[in-house]
Amino acid sequence: MVSAEEKVDLESDEEIPFSGSQTSNKMSSLSFETPHILSHPKFSASWVLRKVNRISILRSIYIVLIKAKINVLLPFGPLAIMLHYLTKKHGWVFFFSLLGITPLAERLGYATEQLACYTGPTVGGLLNATFGNATEMIISMYALKNGMIRVVQQSLLGSILSNMLLVLGCAFFCGGIVHRQKVQNFNKAAALVNSGLLLMAVMGILFPAVLHFTHTEVHKDKSEIAISRVSSCIMLIAYASYLFFQLKSQRNLYSSLDEGEDNQEDSYDDEVPEITYWEAIGWLAVLTLWISVLSGYLVDAIQGASDSMNMPVAFISVILLPIVGNAAEHASAIMFAMKDKLDITLGVAIGSSTQISMFVIPFCVIVGWFIGKPMDLNFQLFETATLFITVLVVAFMLQEGQSNYFKGLMLILCYFIVAASFFVHVDPSNDDD
């Protein structure tokens, strides 16, 4: 048993650092009390935490890779790679790759938020949307390299649908439940600008599909690719103009109507970063690299998973892949909505959809142009109609500048309708060709 005096010494060791003449006394007492100290769980735990805090690299690893509960899914990534080479069971490889990418996408969002604490709210919101879409971008590049044009189109379409319906719906619903005694407001002007960009993206995607299905091309199978590439260049110019408009020209437009820019600035100032600036950049690079490795195995297993699970490729591409890729946006949007910061929620959810539709999709078309892949904006009639209706529904929800839990519930139910539709949808592209 440890005496009362020894317990006092142990507690004082945890709070008072060793210094001066006290060091010799403490060391003499520690020389014969070592067995008791090693068996004291509170002392050992605090000793480990002090050591970890002193070593910045270990502390950073603990915060990013161990602290979050979702990191229990990290081992599924290496397991998916092992199954790929040992069993060739594509269904399990696909499933475990999805589980392995989920925490990586969430941690990528966390590292982006930590970096945003140093860069400020406007640049931080842009970084959040950009790196939040890194998973979808990497998966699309691998699929495009393998000539899986429909997987690229459907996965990017699914990301837009998921952000606008599921992510925004869950954010509105959770924020409305937490703040059900009042009406939550957001900047209607900024929301309408994003809605306009989404409608412009629908226009760019709609015309190649109409040209194809009305059989009015000047040159069959060439005119729609040509108009897709021209439209993609125009959409990239529009997105670059939007960034200038957002970051330089009309910054006041993106401040809260009631509280000004303080609403967004406080959201970052109130949060003390847990890792340093360069650690955040380093983790962004490491996580992006690991996601790119897993994405290769994920894309290779899509067709085999579709056959083994008796599930349409369209459902996998439009519903399952975007849910994993949007893990970071989903968590961030809900968190900010529950804190009554809907301007940031819209920046994450609608801003991410705008970036995919106006930047990622046109960028994939241009990349396909350079590498000789016939990537175009013809998303087929069913997918194009789904996108068009979704943008109209979300634009109608945002026009009042207010949200509540019922609006969120309607958006979530709309997403369930979309998911059910794609579960019974057969891609007709091969038949048409």
UniProtKB/TrEMBL annotation:
Give a GO molecular function annotation for the protein: calcium:proton antiporter activity
Q: Where is the composition biased (Basic and acidic residues)?
A: 1-10
- Record field: transmembrane: 60-86, 92-110, 122-144, 156-178, 190-213, 225-245, 280-299, 311-337, 344-371, 377-398, 405-426
Going by the UniProt record, its keywords in alphabetical order are: Antiport, Calcium, Calcium transport, Ion transport, Membrane, Transmembrane, Transmembrane helix, Transport, Vacuole
Q: Which GO terms describe its cellular component?
A: plant-type vacuole membrane
Do you know which Pfam families this protein is assigned to? Na_Ca_ex
Q: Where is it predominantly found?
A: membrane
Q: Which GO terms describe its biological process?
A: intracellular calcium ion homeostasis
Q: Where is this region: Disordered?
A: 1-24
Q: Where can this protein be found?
A: Vacuole membrane
Q: Does the keyword Cell membrane apply?
A: no
Membrane topology, as annotated: Multi-pass membrane protein
Q: Where is the Sodium/calcium exchanger membrane region domain?
A: 92-247, 280-422
Per the entry, what this protein does is: Vacuolar cation/proton exchanger (CAX). Translocates Ca(2+) and other metal ions into vacuoles using the proton gradient formed by H(+)-ATPase and H(+)-pyrophosphatase.
NCBIfam families for this protein: caca2, cax
* Similarity field: Belongs to the Ca(2+):cation antiporter (CaCA) (TC 2.A.19) family. Cation/proton exchanger (CAX) subfamily.
Name of the protein in question: Vacuolar cation/proton exchanger
